[in-house]
Design a protein that fits this description.
Nucleoside Triphosphate Pyrophosphohydrolase; 34% helix; globular; NMN_biosyn; NAD regulator
Length: 294
């Protein structure tokens, strides 16, 4: 069957953190990312197209925005099988501070991103990760040696270390094994599905964020201008999906020179907490001003 050309679209992963919950903005109805067609007649660049559709669909004016990836696999859109155009999407990642996140209008909703990828959260309850690991172990035993090794490495099985950044690879393995609804398998039991391949796009974004924490100061896009080190740690833990050692984190951040004290203190459960802010001069001092949490 002849296909009706190519349709170019923008998909936006908009992320915010509320307390200890990392959130992704979805459009009402079946969970999906804000998306829209690229308009070559009026959109001068892809980035301007992304900012336009984010504003139109969410009411947000985002600051931090980066191109994520281009998604163009065959049959991403079911209508392609019926002769529709091939759907190619350029994904963008936007980071939104807590104050701006409150401005989102009706018609959109913030979702805990671990509702969609629950095996990625290793904090209080590792049940979902354990269940997913058991599933892939059982399924990979029926397969060949390369599949068993992928399962072992990606899900930290049999002594393998867990790699925070391999979010997309873990999702794709579960997809391959029919363990997510988007794959159409009978074992689709893990996580809340999203329309089309938007959960795959979300997984790509989470992996990108986790990787960049170590060498870019992106976490400061998600915290208030003034914060305690405990608040900063909770934000990093939410994004990484794991608990960090408090004294080590504090020492690492203070020694890095990436933050500075404001001179203020805030009441807390015990001693009043010192308040800090991001120190932008660090960007000129070294090429990798992130928070190395390894």
């Amino acid at each position: 069957m002849r296909h009706a050309g190519v349709r170019l679209q923008i998909d936006a992963v908009i992320v915010s953190v509320a307390g200890e919950t990392p959130r992704v903005l979805t459009v009402a109805g079946a969970p999906r990312l804000p998306s829209g067609d690229f308009a070559p007649e009026t959109d001068r660049t892809l980035e301007l197209a992304a900012r336009r559709l984010i504003g139109e669909q969410t009411g947000l004016r985002v600051g931090y925005l980066e191109q994520l990836y281009t998604f163009g696999d065959r049959d991403r859109d079911p209508r392609e099988a019926a002769g529709g155009p091939r759907l190619v999407s350029v994904g963008y990642l936007a980071l939104v501070g807590v104050d701006a996140a409150h401005a989102a209008p009706s018609g959109v909703a913030w979702h805990d991103w671990y509702a969609h990828l629950p095996w990625e959260d290793q904090r209080a309850d590792a049940a979902e990760r354990t269940a997913a690991a058991r599933f892939v172990r059982a399924r990979s035993r029926r397969g060949d040696a390369p599949l068993r090794e992928r399962a072992r490495v990606l899900f930290g099985i049999d002594g393998a270390a867990w790699n925070d950044e391999a979010v997309l690879e873990r999702y794709e393995l579960l997809y391959e094994l029919g363990a997510v609804a988007e794959a159409g398998g009978r074992d689709a039991a893990f996580g809340m599905p999203m329309e089309l391949d938007h959960r795959r796009i979300l997984a790509t974004a989470i992996g990108r964020i986790r990787g960049k924490i170590a060498y870019r100061p992106i976490v400061f896009e998600l915290v208030p201008g003034a914060f305690s080190l405990s608040e900063l740690q909770h934000t990093v833990e939410a994004l990484a999906g794991r608990v960090l050692h408090g004294p080590n984190f504090r020492r690492l951040v203070e020694d890095s020179g990436i933050v500075e004290e404001t001179g203020e203190r805030r009441p807390s459960g015990g001693r009043p907490a010192k308040i800090y802010r991001f120190r932008p001069d660090v960007l000129a001092e070294r090429p990798d001003p992130g928070i190395g949490i390894r």
